[in-house]
Amino acid sequence: MISEPFTGRCRCERPWSADGTSPGALHTSKGNDPGSGPGGPHGSTNEDDVNIVAYKPSELTDAERAWFIKLVRAGGEVGGQVLEKNITNSQVLVLREEGEMRGIAAVKRPLPSYRKRVGKSANAQLSDADFPYELGYIFIVPELRGQKLSGQLVAKALETVTVSGVFAAARIDNHAMRASLLNAGFGTTGRPYRGRSSRTLQIFIKQA
Q1: What's the start-to-end Cα distance of the chain, in Å?
Q2: What does the pLDDT read at residue 148?
Q3: Closest residue by Cα to residue 166 from 99, 100, 90
Q4: Of residues 157 and 37, which shows the higher confidence score?
């Protein structure tokens, strides 16, 4: 989920191919993705320096993993020791601008206790058989917001679970995230419920 402002950066070097991209990269540009928000450090993003790549957690360096966790915590939606475990069991998505980690997402297998608690709170049926995966930890640094990059992250994340159902939780006041999920084919289910820090959340589901 996209949440509180965060202005940190991590320049994490990766092995790039001859055209400057990493395998599986999804390019995006402000010209193809208009938005009302500011661009990156140069005032805009462009096709040559922004991409989204899916990784296994084991493929991240220690520095990248630490920065991924820092960005998740900057979103204010999760914390504690469970975060480290969740990331280990996830497929992670990283949005890079000129090599810097500037946005994140993850497709994870939620713990049974979390699934049960959220399903009960939202009055939603979230069985492991129907929805084995959860899409979450979506966060983009403030200076790259307003360019519909969350939609790009969602689309890339769904490519990793094409044959499985997925659910996600989004704040009811996070209109950008809600729009990204709806545009990706998610629908709402259950009722709004109170999440961390008394925020009101809504469950979204996408069938396999």
Answers
A1: 22
A2: 85
A3: 90
A4: 157
Identity of the highest mean pLDDT range in 86-90, 96-100, 127-131 = 127-131
User: Edge-to-edge, what's the strand order for the sheet holding 187-194?
Assistant: 26-27, 50-55, 90-97, 100-108, 133-140, 166-171, 200-206, 187-194
CATH code: domain 26-206 is: 3.40.630.30
Q: Are 8 and 41 in contact (CB under 8 A)?
A: no
Tell whether the torsion through CA atoms of 111, 63, 27 and 29 is positive or negative.
Answer: positive
Paired residues of 63 in beta bridges: none
Calculate the average pLDDT of the chain: 78
In 41-194, the DSSP E strands lie at 50-55, 90-97, 100-108, 133-140, 166-171, 187-194
- pTM of the full structure: 0.76
The secondary structure of 131-164 as a DSSP string is: --EEEEEEEE-GGGTTSSHHHHHHHHHHGGGTTS
